[in-house]
Amino acid sequence: LLGAEGAPAPRTIVVAGLDATLLPGAVPLEEILLGPAASLPEHPGAGDVAYILYTSGSTGDPKGVMLTHQNALCFVRWAAKEIRLTDRDRLSSHAPLHFDLSVFDLYAAFLAGASLHLVPEGLSYFPLPLARWIDEERISVWYSVPSILAGMTTNGGFETPPRALRVILFAGEVFPMRPLREMQRRLPGVDLLNLYGPTETNVCSYHRVEGMLPDDRREPLPIGRVCPYDEAIVLTDAGTPAAVGEEGELWIRGESVMQGYWNDAERTARALVPDPRGEGRGPYYRTGDYVRRIDEEQLDFLGRRDSMIKSRGYRIELGDIEAALFEHPAVEEAAALAVGEGGETRIHAAVALKKDASATPRAVQKHCLSLLPRYMVPESVLILSALPRTSTGKVDRVRLATYLHDGHPPEA
Q1: CA-CA to 203 of 20 to 30 Å: which in 290, 337, 367, 374?
Q2: Whether the predicted pLDDT of 57 surpasses 60
Q3: How many CB atoms lie within 10 A of CB 52?
């Protein structure tokens, strides 16, 4: 619970079990609950901070993202309308509360009067039981990261389409083409929406998948058009607006953009910047993501600034390497990482294989060579039983880098 609009936040409620000393200015939840009700503001404003989400830290130092009531509400209202959510729908609670996907699960359900079904503890990351649970609970709208859906599809889930499922939303990662095509085949008639947005903006663009994806497609889905509550500009490396067909960094401003980073004015000032065109209508958030303009409205995702590397003089997008790794028939999960070694950037990869499948690191490298230029082929491939995950289900690249450095995962 934070201060009034425009005022410094004097305190925040911390959930039970978290050490309040970890956040400057924080108060334990128990202290708030024991205090007088009169001390709580009766009518929080739309611009008041509603919650703070810490980014996963899968690629760097976690940041406390301050999001307001309006930030959440604009997305929830739009999403409920876009998928025609009603009181007859049944949603799940798959995303943990510290992950922004949970904002839709909870508040879209409340907005529409839909029912919300709690995923049993311990079931969230077991693909086959989770796929059965979706059917048994007659879930009609499902929202999760692509790796969860890919796991359910490639491990034998959805062999019979869930009886009530009508919409699948996914966000947070690029959905590899092969499991996405397979999911389309297994779930005919289910609407698929690719939602895009950093934690700092929640969802700011979307792409509805229309028609069956071709078998030879390897490039990722577009991130589509900007949601109606936000606006975007794409700036080239020269700082000029990108024309159709040109690449650049995506900048977003509007109702969904965060208030700033908790107790970090310097980082906030770097992220929320004035309109470079001098229009002065509020700050833009620099996403750090590179996109290409497909047309005046549609955007194609190219990759994160921090995943575009230079190796041996070539600019490389790690996502292109991961797409090639996923095309190997034995590969279940894949990640490519750039590691600095002696002033040079080297590419390495880690994969997990399908059940009862086999492949050697050399075979995976040879497969990549058939699809990629030699300079993009990983110098080493680590084969694991499963890739490490963060608590939100994304690949934990920090831990994975440690595995690659050591040559193997630490002993359990």
Answers
A1: 337
A2: no
A3: 22
